Structures are given as structure tokens and as C-alpha cells.
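Re: that backbone. C-alpha cells:
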């Protein structure tokens, strides 16, 4: 039997039933993933949408900023300066997840829900796909849900859905353009095959391109990504050393896992003749007390048990008071931050 003959063997109703039944488990599970995310924030764990709570979702948003691609890091930075925009964005995303989840579980406006799912997956990949210190957790979630959304769009909801019930009550919906593309009017065999193949190629490219970008192993060698998800990294810049020994430097925690804070245990200023000043432990904690100006109000640099601590995405101007009276002479100076794992980060300092 030729492919053309085979494609004509099944009518639209049969294809609708078969494809819908084949993806029923996927539709329910994907719907539950999004339903669970939405209900946690609106019902079961509302502190996630409470700006004054420790688990406020803005912290996660800021944590994704260092590795966000396509310029979204700058967009997130701008949004984080406006609490009302942060709140509106998080409520909107949570509401979209909730609506998408309900639509997929019940099979109502199924293809529109699948489109929302795909959009959420793309957003997740672009902002959080780089994260996952031991496994590429967010990448895995984004790639999986993207493929699931594509599959549901091509297959439709099948008979176990509100869309199907609406079609039985009003058969004219099958010819309505809006219901065909946003509800779940049956595609014929050839259309189902075409959409299935086309979206499979899109899903494969989406998966492979982002996997190679974040981890390599396809077009390049394996690597830790443009932004490391496992090792904390602190970028230092605009350091100024005053003649009385005061140090002012801009610090940005722009790499590592958001699961735990980074700890800075030692800060050193080196000059032409060696170490000029060094702060560590309690001395470091006391030297910065009251002298940290954070850029954002969520993840921050702050005094910690070992000196300084910071959560992912934190940016701050840090001023350190000298431990003794001194007069700094002209010369070239370097500022070094050492974290708890012994890794050093440095920048040049201008003498003021």
C-alpha cells in the first residue's frame, strides 16, 4: 500500500481518536506540571508571590539573570528595578501556567494551551536553561515540555476532552478557523503527519542547539557553559583605593549554583611591594558592616559567617574600611577576592 493510499485510509474522526488517545498521558502530565506550578503560588504556597517572604519568586528571577541569553539579562535587570513590574510579571506567568494546565488537563482550547506551553518552555530555556550544577535541570525541563507541547498541538486532544464534547454538540466548530487552530478540531491524516514531522524537526533543533550552547558535545567539545552552573564566579570592576586605605569595588556574582550562596572569606589589596591590606573572617565582616550598597533589593551581598556572602545575581558596591591608619602611595594596585573554595577573583584598582 502506497503512502498516499495509506494517508487516505483513515478519516479525520479516526485520526482524531487515535492521535488523541496516543498523547493522552502526555497531555495530562504536562497539564499537571503547569497546574502544579500555578496552584503552588496562588493556593498552596502563596508566599512565593509575597514580596516580603523569603521564598519570593523575584529571588529566582534575579538568580537566572547572569546566564539569560538574547539580551534577556538586561531586560530582567531593568524589571528588577521596578517592584511593581516584578510583581505583575510573576503573577502573569503564574496565571498563564494555571490556565495552560487547566486547558491541557481538561482538553479545552487544547491547541491554544499547547502554544502557551511552548511559549513557557522557550522562556524557561532562555532564562534558566544554563542552571543545574550536577544535572542540567532547567534545560531538561524546558526541552521536555517544549517537545510535549509540540506533540499535543499536532495530535489534538482526542475524544477525552471538553473540545471533543463541544464538537459533538456543535459539529460546525470543525470548520471554524479559530477552533481548528486554538481548540482541537481534527486534522486529517496528511495534516497530522505534516505537523508531526515539522514540529519534531523544530523540537530537535531547539534541543540540540541549546544543549550545544550550554554544554557542548554536539558541534563543540563538552564545556561548562558560557556561565558556570556549578562554580561560583564573582566579577570585580571599578575598584578605587583611597589614600587612607579605604577600598571601594563593584562586585557581581555572575556564575554558580543558585542553590547556595557564595562566601568570600578574604579580600586582599596588593601593591608594588606586596600586600598592602588584607581582610578576612570577622575582620572582613566588620569592615563591610553598613558599607554595602546593593543594586537590587532581592539577592544581595551581605556580611556572613565567614566574611561576605552573596546569592546568585547579586550586584553591589562594597566599601572596606582599613584595619589601621595608613597612607597609600602612587602605584599599581590589585584587588583580590578569595571564596571559600580557594578560588581568586581580581581586578585593578585606581588610586583616588
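Recovered sequence:
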Amino acid at each position: 500500500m502506497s503512502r498516499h493510499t495509506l494517508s487516505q485510509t483513515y478519516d479525520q474522526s479516526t485520526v482524531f481518536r487515535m492521535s488523541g488517545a496516543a498523547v493522552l498521558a502526555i497531555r495530562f502530565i504536562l497539564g499537571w506540571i503547569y497546574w502544579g506550578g500555578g496552584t503552588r503560588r496562588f493556593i498552596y504556597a502563596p508566599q512565593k508571590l509575597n514580596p516580603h517572604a523569603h521564598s519570593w519568586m523575584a529571588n529566582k528571577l534575579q538568580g537566572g539573570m547572569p546566564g539569560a541569553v538574547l539580551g534577556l539579562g538586561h531586560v530582567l535587570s531593568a524589571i528588577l528595578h521596578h517592584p511593581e513590574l516584578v510583581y505583575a510579571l510573576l503573577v502573569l506567568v503564574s496565571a498563564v501556567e494555571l490556565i495552560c494546565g487547566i486547558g491541557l488537563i481538561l482538553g479545552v482550547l487544547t491547541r491554544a494551551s499547547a502554544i502557551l506551553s511552548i511559549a513557557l518552555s522557550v522562556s524557561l530555556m532562555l532564562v534558566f536553561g544554563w542552571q543545574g550544577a550536577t544535572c542540567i535541570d532547567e534545560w531538561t525541563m524546558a526541552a521536555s515540555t517544549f517537545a510535549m507541547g509540540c506533540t499535543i498541538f499536532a495530535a489534538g486532544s482526542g475524544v477525552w476532552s471538553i473540545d471533543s464534547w463541544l464538537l459533538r454538540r456543535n459539529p460546525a466548530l470543525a470548520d471554524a478557523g479559530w477552533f481548528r487552530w486554538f481548540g482541537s478540531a481534527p486534522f486529517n491524516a496528511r495534516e497530522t503527519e505534516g505537523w508531526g514531522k515539522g514540529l519534531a524537526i523544530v523540537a530537535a533543533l531547539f534541543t540540540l542547539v541549546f544543549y550545544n550552547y550550554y554544554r557542548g558535545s554536539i558541534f563543540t567539545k563538552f564545556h561548562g557553559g558560557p556561565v558556570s552552573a556549578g562554580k561560583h564566579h564573582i566579577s570585580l570592576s571599578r575598584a578605587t583605593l583611597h589614600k587612607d586605605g579605604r577600598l571601594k569595588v563593584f562586585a557581581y556574582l555572575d556564575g554558580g549554583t543558585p542553590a547556595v550562596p557564595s562566601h568570600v572569606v578574604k579580600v586582599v589589596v596588593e601593591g608594588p611591594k606586596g600586600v598592602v591590606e588584607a581582610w578576612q573572617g570577622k575582620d572582613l565582616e566588620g569592615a563591610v558592616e553598613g558599607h554595602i550598597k546593593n543594586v537590587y533589593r532581592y539577592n544581595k551581598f551581605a556580611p556572613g559567617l565567614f566574611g561576605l556572602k552573596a546569592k546568585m545575581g547579586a550586584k553591589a558596591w562594597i566599601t572596606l574600611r582599613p584595619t589601621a591608619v595608613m597612607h597609600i602611595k602612587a602605584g599599581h594596585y590589585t584587588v583580590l577576592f578569595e571564596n571559600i573554595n580557594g578560588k581568586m577573583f581580581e581586578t585593578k584598582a585606581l588610586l583616588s
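Residues 189-215 form the longest helix (27 residues). Residues 1-7 have pLDDT under 50 and may be disordered.
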